[in-house]
Design brief:
Arp2/3 complex 21 kDa subunit ARPC3; three-stranded antiparallel beta sheet; 10 helices
């Protein structure tokens, strides 16, 4: 879920932009470009993921002008590249949509917040819980982080978007429409989970070193 036209109060757009900027600043403070520049293969994979996300985000359901439903792939990118590079991908894609005229520019911050920051936080927390408390098992990582994590991130993202509309919508009709759109979340959750889990399982089998959050030594070599 993301916004494409202005239906939120200006103060909320400012707050969302500040939160997104703060989180992005924390991500860039970790200097993820050092790892990116040091690995040519990672550069190719990261650029390919960015282009793929930009193209796939064009496949969207939009019954009203201001709200769109689409797959995010944020959980997949977080597991593949870790949070800082995943957030940069999300920022680039959202910025590209603004430059292409698909999204109003004041919505950049709020869209980065609900399609980038929120699912990244959910994914990282899920991954940390799996890494700390659950057995070092390949299927546990795949199903909990990949399938369940993607579904949970989609749910929280949708509820976050709905919450923003309920909090500061400028049009009462937008509140009603957002509630109606919330009914589509159970349809988006399995789609996001299936695609994320499928691609993640393929990479874990053939290229486990491409999945930055997957420790093949702990999950495979020691078994």
């Amino acid at each position: 879920m993301s916004f494409s036209e202005l239906v939120l109060e200006p103060w909320l757009l400012v707050v969302a932009a500040l939160v997104s900027a703060a989180v992005m600043g924390l991500a860039l403070a970790q200097r993820p470009w050092r790892t990116l520049l040091a690995d040519t293969g990672l550069q190719h994979r990261w650029l390919a993921a960015t282009v793929a996300a930009l193209l796939l985000w064009q496949l969207r359901a939009q019954a009203v002008d201001w709200l769109t439903l689409h797959l995010m792939f944020t959980t997949l990118f977080t597991l593949l590249f870790k949070a800082p590079l995943a957030l940069v991908i999300n920022l680039v894609v959202n910025l590209s949509l603004v430059l292409l005229g698909r999204v109003a520019w004041p919505l950049l911050g709020v869209n980065v917040l609900i399609t980038g920051v929120v699912p990244v936080v959910v994914t990282v927390l899920t991954w940390r819980l799996v890494d700390r408390y659950l057995p070092d098992n390949l299927m546990v990582f795949l199903f909990v982080c990949g399938f369940f994590g993607a579904a949970l991130a989609t749910l929280v993202t949708g509820l976050s978007g709905l919450g923003l509309v309920l909090l500061a919508a400028t049009d009462p009709e937008a509140i009603h429409l957002a509630r109606e759109y919330a009914r589509f979340l159970p349809l988006l959750m399995p789609s996001e989970a299936f695609i994320t889990g499928m691609l993640l399982s393929i990479l874990m089998v053939y290229h486990p070193n491409w999945v930055a959050t997957f420790n093949d030594h702990c999950y495979i070599d020691t078994k």
